[in-house]
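User: what does the whole thing look like in 3D?
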Amino acid sequence: MGKGRFEAFSDGVLAIIITILVLELKVPEGEDLHALHETLPHFLAYVLSFIYVGIYWNNHHHMLHATTRVSGASLWANLHLLFWLSMVPFVTGWMGEHHHAAVPVAAYGCVMAAASIAYTILQGTLTRQRDHNAALARAIQRDGKGKVSLVLYLSAIPLAFVSTWASIALYVTVALIWLVPDKRIERALAEHHEATVGADSHP
Amino acid sequence: MGKGRFEAFSDGVLAIIITILVLELKVPEGEDLHALHETLPHFLAYVLSFIYVGIYWNNHHHMLHATTRVSGASLWANLHLLFWLSMVPFVTGWMGEHHHAAVPVAAYGCVMAAASIAYTILQGTLTRQRDHNAALARAIQRDGKGKVSLVLYLSAIPLAFVSTWASIALYVTVALIWLVPDKRIERALAEHHEATVGADSHP
Amino acid sequence: MGKGRFEAFSDGVLAIIITILVLELKVPEGEDLHALHETLPHFLAYVLSFIYVGIYWNNHHHMLHATTRVSGASLWANLHLLFWLSMVPFVTGWMGEHHHAAVPVAAYGCVMAAASIAYTILQGTLTRQRDHNAALARAIQRDGKGKVSLVLYLSAIPLAFVSTWASIALYVTVALIWLVPDKRIERALAEHHEATVGADSHP
Amino acid sequence: MGKGRFEAFSDGVLAIIITILVLELKVPEGEDLHALHETLPHFLAYVLSFIYVGIYWNNHHHMLHATTRVSGASLWANLHLLFWLSMVPFVTGWMGEHHHAAVPVAAYGCVMAAASIAYTILQGTLTRQRDHNAALARAIQRDGKGKVSLVLYLSAIPLAFVSTWASIALYVTVALIWLVPDKRIERALAEHHEATVGADSHP
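Assistant: Here's the predicted 3D structure for the full assembly of 812 residues, as structure tokens:
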């Protein structure tokens, strides 16, 4: 099976998630700077989640770009990833409202850890079709960043019950780690692209 | 008429339905595990509906993949299917809030039965153009799963007035039946693909 | 300028409008048939608007299919159409809640009349590029249905102040008129398609 | 890297932003013209923001059309632009509710100024790949309109604390400036197109 609709559907869902995130930003009751100030935690939670979903979109984009064939198992692995990402607006809204409370901050980490695991599973189903997706398989041989992220998420969950700020600091750290673009895939793709110029008509 | 925009529009609507489902998950009032516990029925109803819409997307994807031409009647049959699927967030939210009440649980089954019938009608309009969509027609000769699902939905509706849990158990059963991928279409397509490699440039 | 992104953006907006329509369907407070009964006017308003947006999508699809080039003026004419269609969820929600009141029912007609005029303007900007879009220009030589619809909308607006039901009956009539597929464009396209088979690779 | 998914994702997000803008338009409580009258400031704020997002979509469309290659930096510059545009429904809703208050009106200007700067950054990352995107680089040599807009936004922010109406008048002025289509890019593209007819199969 090809990847056109697979990409289109994922893009659609990610675009909607990133946009309905902002629906959690309630229009302030008041009309002065104080009202805006009260929205600040929500706003910061929104910025963080926007960056996270953006990172997922970017990585998803790169991963699919290095893929030529998508199996039925990958369709479900992808829906599984999208399921956890669709929970992001929910936990973002909750954490934005109760950023001093342990459970909402821990819940944010749980969803992020689940999305991270779902991404790894998706990567696995895609690389299993080795003959088709060899470029991808080569690119992610050592998924160091992914492992570090998961460890940080899993640390942030219990840490939230000690200090919510320390926990949130870990989430910010993961986002910063990923904002550095994934050179491995870009490099592998550049090589792949040089080898297949002309054959790769679709972007 | 071709199928590019047909697929794109369906993908768009399904992507939005699957994502606005989560808007029914209200951010909890409290900030402890108890607040999260109260969200649990909503969350489970959300998971079930997410899987249902995912199944419809997967099957729709496979069905259209085996289709080469789309008639005007199919456009309306597709909108009819999307109409019933667009009711899913409504009945999910209602059932999530009142999972002990017969009417909301039965309403969920009504929408699912209507979507199931609408899918069969769409399949019918697509296979009627036999010369174009022969691969699809061969693949779904005996739509056993579809018939079983409809029987289970139609049983779940009156059953909700006896026991809502038994009714919900039937909905879960249908979801599990479909999570097993539809080998028939995949196999028929694989054969078709082998016969037309090169001609089938779009995924 | 080509039409790929033009279609994609229109599809996106129409898909979202058709789906957020359902967000106006509030989950009922109660849990019995009575609660569902109270939702009925909302539901019927939803069905009507769903069909309207579906008709616009179908016609837009056909019109663009018969178009090969899109000017800058058409981009804005299209946004103008999408603007009025984006008002549909608003007036649907209002009419659903106050179907006995003249102003909401008349407001529905105003938005529909504006969308109808916007569609005619868009058709005008597309056919002005005659050499590129000759197939479309031939197909819509006499836009009878469009004119009848506009007259019915404009009659329904003052009629709402006499009888809201008579006004709503006119809206239903227009929907029924359009549900009959537009044979003219389909026929002209079939002829065009036969003349250009092979050249028209994208649907 | 190609631009297909880049455009599709941007279109998706912009389509959703333009459509969820209308969700800020609350269905009026009453059922007479007075209720509609109270919605008027919201409606006008909605019209203004709809035009702004439409302008961004149009310009984004033209800019990408003149682009052949998209770097990793551009992906993030684009997400940065989409971030600020995703704030538009929030500030539109706030300004619509409190159009006499300085802070909401100034906040609208801040988001618009940020989006304007983000657009300039995106333009910069795209033109940096000069050999690929030369047509674009030529087209925007002197981005006069962009600079004027930014100056007007930055003037409108402090002006809101003197007179909100003067500030809003500046926002309307910027919208009018941009509604005049950008002849520069269209002309440069027309030249480019003539030089590459046949090679430029995708719109």
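In plain terms: The radius of gyration of chain A is 18 Å. Confidence is low (pLDDT under 50) at residues 196-203 of chain A.
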